[in-house]
């Protein structure tokens, strides 16, 4: 009898149990010393500095204003450094929590649109995906951005029946801007187009007031930052994002749309379900939801067509893909005859999509990124006053904690001068650039892993 009651309790609260299980999985192993994402070192330095100098307006990286990103994530992490020293798990602690909140929001949105079964599949597809698991192991801005973008869309849809939810949508949008600036504006075209075409409209006055309220949340920091560091705000905040969209960022390789699409399918296999067009019927059951999902995914295509899209930008689109995949899979299971070959293939595909990413990341997916490994190697075999030279680009983030050696970026002219005077002992260079440089003196390759070489002279 007790087992029956326990089984009923677990069944009734299965989503809660699933979220708790995923939280525990995401927490393993946030204490690992390997750096999977170089931005983590920057976030750690800035958040630690905020906690100890109490300047919450201008983020300082190694003592220099760093305004490429707004400060919301730093604000979340910095209070932890009042109580804890800068060890890896501290800067990552928020990531598993944000991931679970993103899953809950995605589940709520899918349930609101299409019901509980599709919401459950959406949660599984997103929760066991490679990108979500990966980004719970490294501090980053994009998990929080994905949560706030999805929350804004969710509260907008709730506001169709109760306009008071627009207040929560405004808060999500305002906080999103304070975390990821322009990327956080993704809900605006989704909301604007859907409300224009929807039969159940929200009054324009309410939408305008809500947007103004979001600006009231986001603008004060921007104005204060401009007052204290106007040049850095204009260059870092406005100029750098423009480079990512319209140009090739210095040091980056050009990325073709085909390559970006392959990366999307590789990182998030539920995308393959979008090709099962005969089973799209469930999506059309809710015209407003289908319209919002199409606009959401259209923004993803625009991002893929940009000059150098980063894979972490895609994270805010995975909830939409997960919901589409859940709809298509649910309809496919209804239409495919049980025990048929198609039914078995469908089950096999689902198992591969759900099981492969967590197994892959648990057993082989926590290898440290190459530039950090190279810098750590140089640090371990050099004296404290020896310099790590970088060829042409800032390939290594320099913070108060890393790499604990002087770092200097060389140009072609300064490289020849430094080599002639035999000042260079360690040089980190991209393999593609190494092949272009002539007259490199005798050297030893200490480390090589795409796309980097660490040379010792």
Question: How would you characterize this protein structure?
Answer:
The chain is α/β, with parallel strands linked by helices. The chain has two domains: 30-363, no CATH class; 370-456, D-Maltodextrin-Binding Protein, domain 2. Helices cover 60% and strands 6% of the residues. The chain contains 21 helices and seven strands. It has helices at 2-12, 14-27, 39-53, 72-77, 80-83, 88-92, 94-114, 116-127, 130-135, 142-159, 165-180, 187-197, 204-228, 230-246, 257-267, 287-304, 318-335, 341-363, 370-380, 412-420, 431-434; strands spanning 60-61, 64-65, 388-391, 407-410, 426-430, 444-449, 452-456. The strands form two sheets. It has a five-stranded mixed β-sheet. Strands 1-2 form a two-stranded antiparallel sheet. A hairpin with a 2-residue loop joins strand 1 and strand 2 (64-65). The model has no long low-confidence stretch (mean pLDDT 87).
Q: What is shown here, in short?
A:
This protein is an alpha/beta fold and 457 residues long.
Strand order of the largest sheet: 4-3-5-7-6
Mean pLDDT score: 87
The amount of helix comes to 55-70%
Distance between the termini: 75 Å
Structural class: alpha/beta
Count of folded domains: 2
Reported for the largest beta sheet, the result is:
5 strands, mixed
The value of Rg in angstroms is: 24 Å
Poorly predicted segments: none
Shape: globular
Count of runs of 4 or more consecutive helical residues: 21
Sequence of secondary-structure elements: HHHEEHHHHHHHHHHHHHHHHEEHEHEE
The fraction of residues in strands falls at 5-15%
- What's the count of strands? 7
